[in-house]
Amino acid sequence: MYGDLIPEEFYQRDTVTVARELLGKHMIHHLPAGPVGGVVVETEAYLGPGDPASHSARGKTKRNAVMFGPAACAYVYKIYGIHFCFNVTCDSPVKPAAILIRAIEPKIGIEIMTRLRNTDRLTNLCSGPGKLAQAMDINLDINGTSVVTGPVRFYYANQDPGEIVVAKRIGISQAEHLPLRFYIANNRFVSRK
DNA sequence: GACCAGATTGTCT
DNA sequence: GACAATCTGGTCA
After folding, report:
1. Rounded to 5 degrees, what are φ and ψ at A109?
2. A105 in helix, strand or coil?
3. Within 13 Å and on the Cβ side, how many CA atoms surround A73?
4. Is A49 helix (H, G, I), strand (E, B) or coil?
5. Would the Cβ of A60 be found within 7 angstroms of any atom in strand C?
6. A53 and A62 in contact (C-beta within 8 Å)?
7. What is the pLDDT of residues A113-168, one digit of tens each?
């Protein structure tokens, strides 16, 4: 169903490049009950200093410490007290940058994910950062783990992701005009057009 | 120790 | 389209 594990070097490149190339790859969370995951169809890049929307823009703190660590690590945080957002660090140790995984196309362990999300509608399963985290059972335990050797990993796909669209980021109040959001054109699992 | 803001989602109108 | 839900970490005293 999916290809080889993506090596650490993949994440050590420019943030925008990694965010763009992550599209079409497989994201898998290896749960005790079985693997869950699917194809990445939407990402957003969060740069370091110079990008006011990024958590790392105002220096290192306990919460964003993962972003200042090595590349290829999971950065998870809770938002609005309700939802989790899953990011992958990259470009490190040069810059404290990360990529937000906003949506995936469900492929693997769909029964498990529908149970966690309490819905049967595939298009509503992982079409947003909070939904994706809930469907894949992602929480603060994942924070700081490697996406190469940890429970959540990324794999090469055997198929062409198709046309990629560049757009403005969603749900932020600063620097919202920057074209740092990427998604696969005409894919119904993308959170929003 | 108090106060505040937030990379969202589901529900109601 | 508007709004509430609900908690973690940052900031300031």
Report:
1. 65, 35
2. strand
3. 20
4. coil
5. no
6. no
7. 999 999 999 999 999 999 999 999 999 999 999 999 999 999 999 888 899 999 99
Answer yes or no: is A46 CB < 7 A from strand B: yes
Residue A93 has pLDDT above 70, yes or no: no
Q: What is the pTM of this model?
A: 0.95
Give chain A's end-to-end CA distance (angstroms, integer): 28
Q: State the nucleotide closest to A140 in CA–C1' terms.
A: C8
Q: What is the distance between the alpha carbons of residues A27 and A29, in angstroms, rounded to a whole number?
A: 7
Helical H runs in chain A?
15-21, 110-117, 129-135
* A30-60 residue pLDDT tens: 999 999 999 999 999 999 888 999 999 999 9
Classify A106 as helix, strand or coil. strand
Rounded Cα distance between A42 and A165, Å, is 9
Q: Is the CB of A61 under 7 A from strand C?
A: yes
Buried b (16+ CB within 10 A) or exposed e, A40-72: bbbbbbbbbeebebbbbbeeeeeebebbbbebb
The DSSP letter of residue A4 is P
- Concatenating the DSSP letter of every residue in A32-43 gives TTEEEEEEEEEE
Encode burial over A136-163: b for 16+ CB neighbours within 10 A, e otherwise.
Answer: bbbeeebbebbbbeebbbbbebeeebee
